[in-house]
Each structure stands twice: as C-alpha cells, then as structure tokens.
C-alpha cells in the first residue's frame, strides 16, 4: 500500500517538477511560534525579528515560520523544519522545551535555539530577555506619575518571568514612593482582549491611575486612554493605541540577536550557549518616554543608562520578602538562577502567589 | 422554484463512498481557488498537503500519532451521538483522564518498586485511571441529564473550561516540578509510566495500537451486540425503543461513560506517550476536533478511522504548506471547515433524491 | 464602595453582557423555529473581522456594524442551506461553521492586525449623562447597547404578540402540523437562522468596534459558546436571556474586582466561577421546572416534507 502511494507520488512529483524551490546555497532558518503572528504581541515581535533578519541578509537566507503551534504538536513542527533543510531553528515558547530537546538529539547537524527555557544540549542553545529591567524603570515612572499611589497590574500566569516583573516593578516604585500600592489581577491568559479590558476597567474603578500589563493585547492601554489614566505598552511601541495615556513601552527586540546567531552559523562559530540579555544587549528596548514631566523623564533615562552600564542592579540587596523575611542580603545581588525561578513577592505586594 | 427531498428507502452502497469522495474533490477545488487567490500554485499546494506527507516514513508516523487521539475520542462520541446525546465536552473528559492517570505517574515518580511486579503495573494502572477519570467526568452531565433534565450540551461544555482551569491550577501548584525553576510543568515521567515507542527513536508510540484495537472493538459492539442495537434504535426511533422496553436512562449513562472513558484513555495516552509529563495545556482542542472527525466518519468506527487520518493529513500537510509555500495557517483551518461542510452537504444525496421542482419565473 | 464606583462596575457589566446578549437573542429566535446552530462562535468572529475591516476602510462605525451583520447572515445562509434545505445534521454543520469562521476570519483580518480605531461613540445628552450615580449607566452607553435593548423589545413583542411569532413557534414545536396548515416551514426556518446569524455578526462587530476597538484573531474567545448556554439558561425567553447575559457578564467582571480587592483565592478558581455558576443555574432552573422540557419540541430535527 505504502509503495503504491509512493509510486503515485513520484509520478505526481514528476508532473509538478520545476516548482520545487532549489536553494541549497541559502541558509534556511525556521521559527516556531506558540501564538498567531497576528497577536500583535509576543509571537508578532518574534516575527518582526524574523523579518528584520530576512532584510539584513536578503537572499542569503530563507526564513520560515510555523504559527499557532500547540505544545503537543511542537515536536512534529521541529521535525518538519529539520527535515526540510532548515539548519537553524528557533522555538520561541517555554512549552517547547522538551519536544525541541528531543528533536535536537535526533538531528545533531541542525542548530536549535529555545527561548525562555533552561535545558541545553551541544546543538541547543537557550535565549531570553531580562524584561524585569524595563519593569523596574516602569515602576519608578508609575510611582512618580500616580496621584493615588496605586498601580493596577494585569498579569497572565504566575510563572517566574511574570513574578520577577512584578517584583522589579515594585522595587522601582518603592525607591520613589515607599508606600506605593499594587493591585494585581490574574486573567489566566496571555491574550484575551475582552478580559484584559475588563480587568483594566475593574482596576481603574478601584482607584488605580496607572495600568501596567503582562499580557499581550493593547486593550488595557486603550481602557486607560478612555478613562484618562496612564498605561504602558507591551511587546511593541503601542503609542498609537493610546497617545495620551502611554508613558512608555516595554519592547521585545529579537532582530539583532537573530542576526547575530545566523552570522555565527554562517561563519561556523556557533556554539551552544545560554544568553540572557537585557537593556544593555538591546534585547529589551524602552519605547519613547511620553506624557510625563521633564524631571520624571530625566530620571527614567538616567535609570536606563545606569542599568545598561551595570551601575544599578535591579535585584540588589537588601530586599525583604512579602512576609518580612530576608530575600536578598545587603551588599549581595540575587544570582541569575534565582531570578530565573523567582516565586516570591517583595514586601509591599498585597497579593497571594499561588503555591 | 424550490428543492425537494425524497427519502431513499434503500440507498445504493456505492453512493455512500462516492458522495464523500466527490465532496472531497469539491472541497479541493474551493481550497485551490483560495490558494490561487493568495497568489500560490494550487498544484503545489495539493502536493504539499496531500502527497508529501504520505510518502515518507516519518510523516506517516506523525500522521498516526496525530490521528490517534482524534479517532479514539470520536469513536467514543459516536456512542453518544448515535443515541442523540450531545456530549460536546470530550475535551474536558480528555483532560480529566490525562490528569487522573498522570497523577499516578507523579505519585510513583522516583519511588523504588520492590514488589514482584516491579514497576510494570504502573502503566496499565495509569491507562485504567485515565478511563475512569474520563468516564466519571462524563457522568456529571449524564446524571444531571437523566435525573433533572439539564441540557447535556451545555453542562458538558461548561465543564471543559472547569477542567482546563483545574489542571492549570494543579500543574502550577501542587504538581509542579520542584527542580523546574518554578515553571508550570510536572517532572518527566519515569520509563515505567511512559508508553513505549514502536520504532526506536521515533514518536510513534504504542497508544496507536490501542486505538486500532478500540476501533475494531467498537465496530463489533455496534454491529453485533445488544448495546449497539439499543443505541441505534434509541437514536433512530426513540418511541419504538420505549415500546421495546429499553431504559433510556441506563443507556444515556452507559453511552456517556463509554464516550468519556475513551476520551480519558486518549488523554492519558497523549500524556504518557506524546508529552511525557503534565503541563497546563495537554490538548490543542482534540475534544472539539474529534466531534468533526466523528461526523466526517459518519458515526461509524471504520469511517472515523479514515476521517481521523484525513484530518491529521491536513494538519501535517498544513505545516508543510507553511514551510514550503509560506501559506498562512488560516488557510488550513478554513479548508478543514470547507471539507466538513462539503462532506456534510454530500450526505443529502445519499439519503435523499434531490430534485429541483417548480415554475420558472417569467 | 461608593455610588460612582458601583456605577463604573455596572457600566463594565453592561459592556461585557452586550455581545453575549446580542448573540444569544439571535440564537434564541433560530432555536424557537427548531434549528440548533452551534456555529455562533464562527458567525461572531466573522462579524468581528468583517466589522472592523469595513469600519476601518470607510471610517464609519455604522458601516462596520452593518458589515458585521451582513457577514454573520452570510455565514448563517450557508448553515441554512445545509441544515434546512439539505437536512444535514445541525450539530455537525454548526461545528463546521465555527471552524470555517475561525479560519476565514483570520484571512479576512490578516491585513488589519495592529491597526486601531476610536471606540464606537457613546450617547451623550447634556444634563442627563452627567447625572451622578446613574447618568453614565442609563444615558451614556454606546449605541450598540441601546440597539440591543430595542432588539430585545422587538423580538419579545414579535414572538409573543404577533402572528409571525405564532407561526415561528408553531414551526419549532411541530413542523408536521405547521406544514399541514400551509406554513412554509423551511422558509420560516431560513429566515430565523438568518436573523440569528445577523445578531451574532452584530455581537461580533461589537467586540471589534466598541469593546476593544481593534481586530485580533480568535478575539471572540469562546463568547459564542456562552451565548448558546444563555439560550437554554433563559428557557428560550428573550428577557431571561438578558438577565442571563447580565449575570454571566457580572460574574466575569466581579471576579476581576474581587481579585483587585485582594481576595486570596487562586485565579484559576475565580476564572472558573462563571462556568460553574452557569451549571449551577441550569440545575436550579431544572429543579424549579416541573417534569417536561421547555425546549422547542423540534429543536435539532430537520424537516423533510413528504409532499
């Protein structure tokens, strides 16, 4: 049966010959996204990175993406890319970790990279961005701008990246205003515009006059604009969605990293590595500082420069945990490994983390 | 002018095969048109979607792995649908089965097994728990239906959301891997708790064989047993069934338990065969897609097997199309809808003679 | 909690309830005629995509709303052709419609990702809208809300008080007798299904024009399914559907408020509340009902006249 199908296929293939792309000398680079490229958030930004890469190298590379790939299907997706001649493959979601690892072992000649995970192999790198650095600056700005001393924070899922974002935000805010309050709503989704909008409305009704979000859609920002309060953009510069409300955006910027990795593969210098870059590396970019007094803007720019230069470390001690116990001792800095797995709130956060 | 339907008393057999094939051809034409409108070659698209995945060993294996849960759930659903019971919550039952079976894998993780059986009892027990979990979860809407007359369509659907959130909570909380940097995944299952591979180093797992066995069994149950007979009668002629003294309540409970049990089995096989751990989302909507598979397969086990493979083909081929032709994923989704609509529409010619009757307007 | 805050919360509830109510109202009419259309989600999401696209291109919210209605109705026409004319399984056709709609809306909307519009205009009557406590709630909603209420009045009146409504219900309760009395059963059903699609399309357009004024794939996020639940919850009565929509919208919004207040319950549990509440409400309703279903007797069965 199978042979028969094969035979039929060969005939069909012969009939259609000529249409198959021949691109042996091009480097084929594949991307696997967890969401649709149209989410205008996380997956969209990775795709912007891919397009940047394509533009940089022109016809020397061929890029491909698979969108909206569920974790269950991701192993097959990686395998399809590896088998169709892709030599460098990026998996952009944490949930792809084990499937990508399995496929990487199966295809030692192909280079793999996995975003936000922690498992490495000789041909599997990990990369991620220190988004918390930007959230520290956002916290500072919020504490300066807020009249009610309260931020409304719309969170997706209680994973370390989100928790460290909340902590960094509060550390920044407390530096300016020790009594600054945070109200957190978990919407249990990365992307549900309606629910995010409702959460923003609830937070604004309860007195928050700055809205921060760790979800993907522009809906909370638009609600802030409607209600006449302030907000921050997520993933990309969202100024056009809320020209009066936006303070700045926390932008993902994967393009330069992707270009660097492709160059390394072309030069034969690619090695398995663990990259965790922030503002200094240009993986996290702050959008224009807007709708704030000049002194606040100056402060934000100063902090940004200090974080880039390493003068300011976000998780530098002393840091007290929510219950008052010691989180980071004075004079010490939280090691990366702990930030990567952060699961406690700093003092002053009035919310309970699901344990 | 209007269309008249005249029931066929004895539909010819060839029509039952020819109609869906013709429908497939029509769907291909419409799909090809969409592809052409997007500026790509329909012929290339056809090759990538329907020929390439059938010509390589690894993609054939991928097809089987993808089709397996769909077929298993859909076979279970036909017990309900045939009896006019609308269980659309298979997604929740899939999750319940995966979670309960997976719980045993977590409980036995890293524990030495000194008994005479060693760890060999774990996997069968997990599969059994998967069936139990799915069946119990399906019995909630069934019991509410037979005792209180609450619409099973809605309760089974609402319980999907509840199951998703419950698993989400468990994996982010109590079941989280302590060494996993607080990421929301459980530990990787032990080999004793993992379905073995059929081919060394490939993703083809033993669950595929279980599915095949279930298809055969279900075909026998439908064709040759009293239960199958009762289900068919209740669905086709409820009044006659009542006269014959069949208990609709018992039947409803049995149908839901069977369908939930198979969905739960699919869930635990996906968890222990494909994923190898518990995570917040263990199903990309298999429970819903399986409803389509059930209808594409005309609510018959063997038809469902074919339909499941065809649908899996569009998934695997859809990825191929994104890679080779840069066609957006939405084309695949839209095509799946078109295919289903065409096959359903073709049903009419097998069951009725269709005639255009009436005056031509002057 | 003061009055202003209560009003703010209620305004949010109204916004959350409106798309659910619009879709449920349309589906209710279709089901009253005996047709179960599980494709609400697909019709809604097409309405959202087409509505935003048309409004963006023309700059008019009204044109957007009309486009949403038209696309919803077009999808419903396809469904009616299958189920009413060709007597195909309604459950299967409805699911097919949902899948088709999700895919097609992605294609239609792909050119409009990341674009924004101003939200749909709100009613503003000097003096009334500024009334403390109730002004914004009663006189300051967007126009869709008032349109939805007007539709509710209309549907309730037509169903209960007119000959057309009587015919519609007769078709849903016993198509055989209705046919014998000379009622064009299939024509009535097609019209009812089209109305259902139009309402679902309008509900979808509400999402992308008023609720969150931009387009994103799958932005309906399951609201079509909730609308289907509401119809049963409402025992197929328009005003009860309104009550159900407000309850469900309220449960969704209040759980967010409860979180913001700092109730220490897991977010997953809070998110599950609206669904559990729906199940509970269905159970309670059925306890109060005496034996026998209030569903239209012919719901889900195709009508094939034997000439």
UniProtKB/TrEMBL annotation, chain A:
GO terms for cellular component: plasma membrane. Residues 27-292 form the ABC transporter substrate-binding protein PnrA-like domain. Keywords: Signal. This is BMP family ABC transporter substrate-binding protein. Residues 1-23 form the signal peptide. InterPro entries: ABC-Purine-Binding, PnrA-like. The keyword Transport does not apply.
UniProtKB/TrEMBL annotation, chain B:
This is ABC transporter permease. One of its GO terms (cellular component) is plasma membrane. The chain crosses the membrane at residues 12-38, 58-81, 93-111, 123-146, 153-171, 202-222, 251-269, 281-297, 304-325, 331-349. One of its GO terms (molecular function) is transmembrane transporter activity. It is a multi-pass membrane protein. Coiled coil: none annotated. It is found in: Cell membrane. Keywords: Cell membrane, Membrane, Transmembrane, Transmembrane helix. Its main location: membrane.
UniProtKB/TrEMBL annotation, chain C:
InterPro entries: ABC_transp_permease. GO terms for cellular component: plasma membrane. It holds the Pfam family BPD_transp_2. Keywords: Cell membrane, Membrane, Transmembrane, Transmembrane helix. GO terms for molecular function: transmembrane transporter activity. The keyword Transmembrane applies. It is found in: Cell membrane. It is a multi-pass membrane protein. The chain crosses the membrane at residues 6-26, 38-57, 63-88, 95-115, 143-160, 190-209, 221-239, 246-263, 269-287. Its main location: membrane. The keyword Endoplasmic reticulum does not apply. Coiled coil: none annotated. This is ABC transporter permease. It comes from Lichenibacterium ramalinae.
């Amino acid at each position: 049966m199978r042979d028969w199908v094969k035979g039929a296929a060969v005939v069909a293939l012969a009939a259609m010959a000529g249409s198959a792309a021949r691109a042996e000398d091009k480097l084929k680079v594949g991307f696997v996204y967890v969401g649709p490229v149209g989410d205008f958030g996380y997956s969209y930004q990775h795709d912007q990175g891919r397009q940047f890469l394509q533009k940089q190298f022109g016809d020397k590379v061929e890029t491909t993406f698979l969108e909206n790939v569920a974790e269950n299907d991701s192993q097959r997706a990686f395998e399809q890319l590896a088998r169709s001649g892709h030599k460098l493959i990026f998996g952009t979601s944490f949930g792809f970790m084990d499937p990508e690892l399995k496929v990487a072992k199966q295809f030692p000649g192909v280079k793999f990279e996995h975003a936000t995970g922690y498992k490495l192999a000789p041909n599997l790198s990990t990369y991620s961005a220190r988004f918390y650095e930007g959230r520290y600056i956002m916290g500072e700005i919020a504490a300066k701008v807020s009249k009610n001393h309260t931020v409304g924070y719309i969170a997706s899922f209680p994973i370390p990246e989100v928790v460290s974002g909340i902590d960094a935000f509060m550390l920044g805010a407390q530096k300016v205003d020790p009594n600054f309050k945070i109200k957190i709503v978990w919407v249990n989704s990365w992307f549900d515009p309606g629910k995010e909008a409702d959460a923003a409305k609830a937070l604004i009704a309860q007195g928050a006059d700055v809205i921060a979000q760790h979800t993907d859609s522009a809906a909370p920002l638009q609600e802030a604009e409607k209600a006449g309060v302030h907000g921050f953009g997520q993933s990309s510069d969202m100024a056009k969605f809320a020209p009066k409300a936006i303070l700045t955006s926390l932008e993902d910027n994967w393009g330069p990293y992707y270009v660097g990795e492709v160059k390394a593969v072309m030069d034969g210098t690619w090695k398995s590595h663990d990259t965790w870059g922030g503002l200094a590396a240009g993986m996290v970019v702050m959008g224009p500082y807007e709708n704030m007094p000049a002194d606040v803007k100056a402060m934000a720019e100063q902090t940004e420069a200090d974080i880039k230069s390493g003068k300011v470390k976000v998780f530098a001690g002393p840091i007290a945990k929510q219950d008052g116990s010691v989180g980071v001792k004075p004079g010490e800095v939280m090691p990366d490994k702990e930030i990567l797995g952060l699961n406690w709130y700093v003092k002053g956060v009035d919310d309970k983390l699901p344990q | 002018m209007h269309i008249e339907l005249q029931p066929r008393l004895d539909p010819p057999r060839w029509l039952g095969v020819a109609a869906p094939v013709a429908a497939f051809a029509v769907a291909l034409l419409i799909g090809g048109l969409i592809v052409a409108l997007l500026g790509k070659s329909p012929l290339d698209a056809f090759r990538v979607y329907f020929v390439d995945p059938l010509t390589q060993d690894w993609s054939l294996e991928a097809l089987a792995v993808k089709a397996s849960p769909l077929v298993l759930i859909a076979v279970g659903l036909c017990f309900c649908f045939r009896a006019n019971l609308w269980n659309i919550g298979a997604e929740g039952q899939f999750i319940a089965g995966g979670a309960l079976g997976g719980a045993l894998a977590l409980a036995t993780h890293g524990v030495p097994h000194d008994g005479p059986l060693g760890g060999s009892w774990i996997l069968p027990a997990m599969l059994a728990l998967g069936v139990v979990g799915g069946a119990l979860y399906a019995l909630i809407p069934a019991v509410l239906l037979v005792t209180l007359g609450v619409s099973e369509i809605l309760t089974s659907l609402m319980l999907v959301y509840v199951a998703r959130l419950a698993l989400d909570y468990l994996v982010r909380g109590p079941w989280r891997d302590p060494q996993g940097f607080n990421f929301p995944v459980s530990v990787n299952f032990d080999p004793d708790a993992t379905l073995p591979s059929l081919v060394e180093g490939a993703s083809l797992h033993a669950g595929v064989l279980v599915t095949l066995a279930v298809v055969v069994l279900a075909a026998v149950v439908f064709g040759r047993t009293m239960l199958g007979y009762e289900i068919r009668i209740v669905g086709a002629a409820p009044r006659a069934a009542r006269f014959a003294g069949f208990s609709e309540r018992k039947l409803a409970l049995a149908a839901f338990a069977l369908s939930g049990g198979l969905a739960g089995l699919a869930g635990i096989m996906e968890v222990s065969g494909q994923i190898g751990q518990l995570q917040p989302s263990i199903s990309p909507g298999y429970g819903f897609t399986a409803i389509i598979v059930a209808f594409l397969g005309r609510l018959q086990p063997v038809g469902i097997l074919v339909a499941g493979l065809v649908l899996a083909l569009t998934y695997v081929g859809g990825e191929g199309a994104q890679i080779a032709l840069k066609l957006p994923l939405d084309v695949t989704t839209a095509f799946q809808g078109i295919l289903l609509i065409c096959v359903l529409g073709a049903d009419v010619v097998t069951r009725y003679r269709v005639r255009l009757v009436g005056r031509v307007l002057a | 909690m003061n009055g202003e805050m209560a009003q703010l919360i209620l305004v949010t509830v109204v916004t959350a309830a409106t798309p659910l109510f619009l879709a449920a109202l349309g589906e209710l009419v279709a089901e009253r005629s005996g047709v179960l259309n599980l494709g609400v989600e697909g019709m809604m999401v097409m309405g959202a995509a087409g509505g935003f696209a048309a409004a963006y291109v023309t700059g008019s919210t009204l044109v957007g709303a009309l486009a949403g209605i038209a696309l919803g109705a077009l999808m419903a026409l396809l469904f009616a052709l299958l189920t009413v004319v060709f007597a195909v399984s309604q459950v299967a056709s409805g699911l097919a419609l949902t899948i088709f709609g999700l895919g097609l809306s992605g294609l239609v909307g792909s050119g409009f990702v990341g674009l924004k519009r101003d939200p749909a205009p709100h009613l503003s009557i000097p003096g009334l809208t500024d009334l403390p406590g109730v002004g914004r709630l009663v006189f300051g909603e967007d126009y869709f809300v008032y349109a939805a209420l007007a539709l509710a009045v209309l549907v309730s009146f037509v169903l209960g008080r007119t000959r057309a409504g009587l015919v519609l219900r007769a078709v849903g309760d016993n198509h055989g007798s209705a046919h014998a009395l000379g009622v064009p059963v299939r024509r009535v059903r097609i019209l009812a299904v089209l109305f259902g699609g139009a309402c679902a399309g309008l509900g979808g357009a509400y999402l992308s024009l008023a609720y969150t004024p931009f387009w994103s794939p799958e932005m309906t996020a399951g609201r079509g399914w909730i609308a289907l639940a509401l119809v049963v919850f409402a025992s197929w009565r328009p005003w009860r559907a309104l009550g159900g929509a407000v309850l469900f919208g309220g449960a969704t919004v209040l759980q967010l408020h409860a979180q913001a207040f700092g109730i220490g319950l897991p977010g997953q549990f809070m998110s599950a509340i609206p669904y559990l509440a729906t199940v509970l409400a269905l159970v309670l309703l059925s306890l109060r009902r005496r034996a026998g279903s209030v569903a239209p007797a012919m719901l889900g069965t195709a009508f094939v006249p034997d000439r």
